[in-house]
Amino acid sequence: MPSETFSVEFIQERFLQAGQSHVFAFWDQLSASQQKELLNQAQSIDLKALKYLLDAQSKAGSVHAPGAFSPDALAPAPYIALPVLEQGHQDWAEAVRVGEGLLDAGKVAVLTVAGGQGTRLGFDGPKGAFPITPVRQKPIFQLFAEKIRAQAIRYGQPIHWFIMTSVLNHDSTKQFFRDHNNFGLAANRIHFFTQGEMPAVSFDDKILMESPGKIAMSPDGHGGVFRALAQSKALSWMQAEGLDLISLFQVDNPLVKVLDPAFIGFHHIHGSEMSSKMVPKKNPDEKVGLFCLKSDKLSIVEYSDVPQPMQQLRDSDGKLTFRAGNIAVHLLNRTFAERMALQGHLPFHYARKKVSYIDVSGTLLKPLEPNAIKFEQFIFDALPLAKNAIVVEASREDEFSPVKNAVGSDSPETSKQAQSNLFRRWLNAAGESMLKDLNALEVSPLCADTQDAFIDYWQKSSNRPPLKGDIYLE
Ligand code: UTP
Predict the structure, then answer these.
(1) Structural domain of residue 463, as residue ranges?
(2) Alpha carbons 270 and 378: distance in angstroms, whole number
(3) Mutate to test the pocket of ligand 1, among 123, 251, 287 (most ligand atoms within 8 A of CB)
(4) Domain co-membership, 402 together with 420
(5) Would you say the pTM of this structure is higher than 0.90?
């Protein structure tokens, strides 16, 4: 956002030159405070950058990122596979040892990107406030807070949690934490920061107004995290606190390991600036971003951009050739985030969405079909810019069950089931095989946050409940 303040006339002239004078069509009817708000919004828009994006789009003739995809020179990305049978155990054990060293030294911060609008879920509030655990129905933020508290106890270090919000949900997110006493975390270890916004634009390149005094703005995508981290001074704060690494994940995956020593260890051992977790795709048609080598650079290609025949390819062992699905869990060196904030220039992606807007008479229209383009940056576009970027395999059933839709796949129902199933596997591993009367099971992270911790807890527990119905262990 520009720090200079310009006169009203100057700003209006710039919008006129850019063919966007309608933004000020109702100026004379606005109150002084509405005028101020509109000016602030208008000043935050980089009209030159917007023009570049719109021109690039019309040149491409479709709604697509500038300079996007060509399937030439595309190869499957290598990744560090989970240990199987005799293979890989030593490497993983060494990675855990290195990762735990960094966690013991308090070098790693946690970062959740939570600025999205969650339109598919259709929940009235920040997604992190959505009740998601299978028995207690704890909100996602509480679950993450408890996982963080468990790790802080394990490593004997305060853990700092950075939460990226957007203008749309910043106040409600902070209020939610206040209402719940920060879920037991010290207030000075939770750091909220707000991402930037971009205007929504009609298909004929006009900035849309949501009311006579307000431009229809929306969050600039999770890739806005780099700019937002720098502008909020979070990065300099991390530097001062000796936080060198950032464990980043999305707000909507309750199974995520908030800090994973093996992942951290591999990242460090490989001298990686940005590392990512993958799970093998379930089938060729699964709609996840794919880790690929694009002209030898590790990149994520959106599923819709991978040609069908390539998606179907299989190796001699029957596995999909292009199988490394993105689960949006990353480790970032703080210094890499600093570099991205200064010179990253991630591309903007274009999405056709329904956006309510006012017409020339000031009447609010609510379209039934997409009528607007929204611009978003994606974190993973930083991958090709990172040195020694690596990909590490994760077990889908242990680590990935996102809450995207209200019903059906990737919904609260499937995610609760996945959590319960994970805890049942822990019970099995602890020697319990008679689980037929057990319904939903939930283990508080403060009781055990890993299988090993659970086995330990279960074996020492003198007060085990009968394994039937719904059970919550804390
Ligand atoms: P999604 O792409 O699933 O979008 O975000 P969403 O906004 O949550 O949901 P829909 O598409 O409207 O239904 C993936 C993750 O990225 C974050 C979200 O909060 C979620 O954790 N995100 C997304 C941001 O932090 N900022 C954004 O601008 C977009």
Answers:
(1) 411-474
(2) 24
(3) 251
(4) no
(5) yes
